[in-house]
Specification:
With 158 residues, the chain is mostly helical. The protein contains six helices and three strands, in the order H-H-H-H-E-H-E-E-H. It has a three-stranded antiparallel β-sheet with strand order 1-3-2, with helices on one face. The radius of gyration is 20 Å and the shape is elongated.
Length: 158
């Protein structure tokens, strides 16, 4: 929390020194503050904040890539494949070991990517029930979610 306050303070000071309240100036101040926090991690004790912020940025890029790839796959499936060749499935995805917030983020990210929807969360929060438009191999879908979304979420939540 201290690191966030330092970053915001540096951004505001930067904005005041520039004499402009433009969002670009504030963002530049935030970046300058972040770079200072990254450079002086041992002194300021900001290592966890820097790691989580970088993890969040990496997750946003990863999610954007997964979203674009999923959109492309949906276009290919809907335009170039017959309906009879699709294999829609309901599959379960194990979420044991994740916090309630992590399960919520994961379920929303899954639903936001085209072709997949989170249908239900088990009452004991042990698994998600997913509907996948085309899943000839359910295990491959689970591994892809593990590799992209779950790993990305865990990079900034823990």
């Amino acid at each position: 929390m201290k690191s966030v306050l330092i970053n915001v303070a540096v951004a505001i000071i930067w904005m005041l020194l520039q004499g402009s309240a433009a969002p670009v100036v504030l963002l530049t101040g935030w970046v300058v503050g972040f770079v200072l926090l990254a450079l002086f991690q041992p002194i300021l004790g900001s290592g966890d904040y820097v790691r989580r912020a970088i993890g969040f940025g990496a997750f946003l890029l990863l999610f954007a890539w997964a979203f674009a790839l999923s959109c492309w796959q949906l276009v290919v499936v809907s335009l170039f494949r017959s309906v009879r060749s699709l294999r829609p499935r309901l599959i379960t995805y194990d979420v044991r070991g994740l916090t309630q917030t992590e399960v919520l983020l994961l379920s929303h990210c899954i639903s936001l990517t085209p072709g997949t929807t989170t249908v239900d969360v088990a009452a004991d929060r042990s698994h998600l029930l997913l509907h996948v438009l085309d899943a000839p191999d359910p295990e491959a879908v689970r591994l892809e979610i593990d590799r992209t979304l779950r790993r990305g979420i865990l990079s900034f939540t823990r």
